[in-house]
Amino acid sequence: MPDLGEKAGVMERFDIEGGRKLWGSVRLKGAKNTVLPLIAASLLTDEETVIRDCPDIVDVSTMLKIVRALGSAAYRDGDDIVTRGRITNFEIPKELACEMRSSVFLLGTMLSVLGRAETTFPGGCAIGARPVDIHMHGLGALGAKVEYIGDTIRLTSDGLKGADIKLSFPSVGATENVMMAATLARGETTIINAAREPEIVDLANMLNMMGAKISGAGTSVIKIIGVDALRGIKYTPMPDRIVAGTLIAATVACGGRVEITNCPESFSDYLSAIIKSDTCNICSKYGITTVESYGILPGLGTIETGPYPMFPTDMQAQICALAACSDGETTVIENVFENRYAHLYELEKLGAKISIYGNMAKITGKGFLVGGDMMAHDLRGGAGLLIAAMAAAGKSTLSNVRVIDRGYENIEKMFSALGAKITRTIIIP
Ligand code: EPZ
Fold first, then answer.
1. pLDDT tens digits, one per residue of 317-351
2. Does residue 162 contact residue 188 with C-beta atoms inside 8 Å?
3. Ligand 1 proximal residues by C-beta, below 6 Å
4. What is the architecture of the domain spanning 32-235?
5. CB-based burial label for 273 (10 Å; 0-12, 13-18, 19+)
6. pTM for the whole structure
7. Class of domain 5-28+239-427
């Protein structure tokens, strides 16, 4: 993916011809939200580690730039990410930390390996304040000294020591950060109120294959017994459940029949429970999920996002787009991020009737949308707006689509291969 970057003022736009059904088969690649922490975890050893099937997305490219700046001989070899060598630099370059929230995931590893880590407050999608207090609480409990100097966070430690750590919220990133920091700490660590997302289980699986002693991943109590060293391995991450959900929502919204290979039932069952209509069928068998849709959905009822196993916040925008195409009422309650409704104001441009009351949105679908001009404000919001534009009658434009490239590899090619009509235009001022 050529990284034109917004720095040059370059913007990119999709032109979409809506109203086309989707047909065909798609294979999922490794999940963005597991590959990013896995890259951080691979730095816990200086031996060569290979993470397979990594999507070519902006956030992975940014993470590679960061770990190379820390001293790792990291590179992409086709779909594999290879890291090797000991990190030596304890400062995450500010301009890179500002680009991506996941830079904060490196702190636990850096503390473990170098006894020191410095970063600025991380960037990422503008979906809320996204503080890092829970991360700092966890790393501090392991013995790190945490200092805030202007916009720099400095952590130092003369050897991390296991501890019992209760998280005030089951933060995915903070759980991952503490897991990585505790892996080589002296003694035993227990994380209470840990996040239970599948990506946490994937990280624990890779760390245990490297020689770590982690149990309880996937539950709210995770135990880590510190070990002396980890070895390099080759690891294939779990497929991307959010890309799967995005494909399912798009197929239901546009109509047609799409088969998603390497897509376990757990990636679709929460959607099947909501999308109930005799004109739509979502079926998962032998690791393949098939979606068929040939009519207009009724309203989707009330959907509440929350920490796993509740409805994933990363699918909130996509389900709002589907609700806007339905013929009826849907209420969405966003419980994870305090500012994750920017896409709703864009959806209204396609004719959706939406009222927002704090973290609750009421969407009244009329059974159809009409094309219009929209702007993507964040990664998943952009994906949701693309679904709406593909389902709408007539032409639409979606600007600022580079934010979608952060988490989807060539999203327009993925959907065009299924019959959508999307062209990317690069606008140089
Ligand atoms: C991860 O972000 C994902 N990112 C997010 O996906 C996902 O939305 C989120 O988990 C929730 O599932 C990656 O894994 C790279 P959190 P993370 O810490 O770890 C608050 C996407 O689109 N909080 O679970 O940053 C926070 O503000 C991205 O792929 C604190 O208050 O999420 C939020 O309200 C978006 N203090 C809530 O907790 C902290 O120290 C959940 O955040 C940390 C978090």
1. 999 999 999 999 999 999 999 989 999 999 999 99
2. yes
3. 32-33, 36, 101-102, 125, 128-135, 169, 171-174, 195, 313-314, 336-337, 379-380, 407
4. Alpha-beta prism (3.65)
5. exposed
6. 0.96
7. alpha beta
